[in-house]
Amino acid sequence: MPLYAFGSNGSGQLGIGHDEDVSIPTRCLFEASEPEALISSEGNSTNSIRRIAAGGNHTLLLFSDGAVYAAGCNDDGRCGAEPGDSLMKFWRVIVRDEVSGQSCETFRDVSACWEGTFLVAAAGDRVFVLGSGAKGELGLGEGVVRATGPVPVKDFPPSGTEIVGVASGMGHTVVVLSDGEVYGWGAARKGQLGEAAKGRKVVWEPVRVEGLPFRATGAVCGREFTVVTGDKSKGEFVILGSADNRWNVLSDAPPALEVYRGIWASWHGVYVQRDGGVLAWGRNDRGQLPPVDLPVVSELAVGSEHALALLDGGTVVAFGWGEHGNCGPVADEQGNVKGKYALIPLSMEGESQVVGVGAGCATSWVVMS
């Protein structure tokens, strides 16, 4: 299952063997052998990339078998290796739980803030933290700003619950639990962790997000807001934060949604994929929102200020701020693909097809079969 990347690469976060930006999809490299694509009895690959999570200068890959790989800046150990130089190729992340004395090799979910990494153990009973965060981003307690080795978040999750998923913005993280509750930590002054936590400005360890109108099933994070999702068949969602309504993230939100397939967030926008297309609102000064002529989208990926779409038929397109080449080789003088979409050139290998796309902090990803 080859993975290709393009865009910002100053710390080697694309995992392509060097630290130069590229605008043409380039095959990612792995320190050891490339992860095996497990083959089912029907001949289909059963080990796919489930999630691509990007920090400011590092990237995490979560495979469906639970394996996690990381590349990019590692001066504080955020990629799971001994602190030091950036990793130019993807490295298998294995953490040792100092409490149990056992190694944790597989994970349920992953996320990344600007300088931190969050790994949910396969059993959903622990969150391991790696990296840095000067304002509560790590969730490890007041004054803890660095974790060069894996540290579990203390006394979390609450007894009787499991962690369903984790999501991070630039400076805050939220965790969805099996009982439908949401907890979070990090930046809180814009209301991204709920109104009750807003006055604290910085939350150093997990607090419950109060006042949710439904049972949460998932969440995504913008730079200063959080979108919590509920029952997609009922259109349930709520936006927390963005107190100053910058880029009209709150005021332009529809009062209600019908059935939707998924919700994504950029730093300053919200994107809803429905069977009829993509509904989006928020910042659009660089063409971050979908152009009006965007064809039917089979899969969407939203980064910090750009988006990728896999169209019916296997074509990949990009739009938004592409200053680092993350929208492909064609952009205007300001580095934007604005009011239109750009076709991403792909070097097809044999009978391979595009099966997924990803987007991070000015980084873009294409998964091949």
Number of strands: 28
How would you characterize the largest beta sheet?
4 strands, antiparallel
The helix/strand class is mainly beta
Radius of gyration: 19 Å
**Share of helix, binned:** under 10%
Parts with pLDDT < 50 across at least 5 consecutive residues: 38-43
Mean pLDDT, nearest integer? Answer: 94
N-to-C span: 5 Å
Strand content: 35-45%
Please give the count of helices: 1
Shape descriptor: globular
H/E series? EEEEEEEEEEEEEEEHEEEEEEEEEEEEE
Strand order of the largest sheet: 2-1-28-27
Give your account of this protein's structure.
Helix content is 1%, strand content 42%. It is mainly beta and 369 residues long. The strands form eight sheets. Strands 2-1-28-27 form a four-stranded antiparallel β-sheet, with no helix packed on it. The protein has a four-stranded antiparallel β-sheet with strand order 3-4-5-6, with no helix packed on it. A four-stranded antiparallel β-sheet has the order 9-10-11-12, with no helix packed on it. A hairpin with a 3-residue loop joins strand 9 and strand 10. The termini are close together. About 2% of the residues have low confidence.
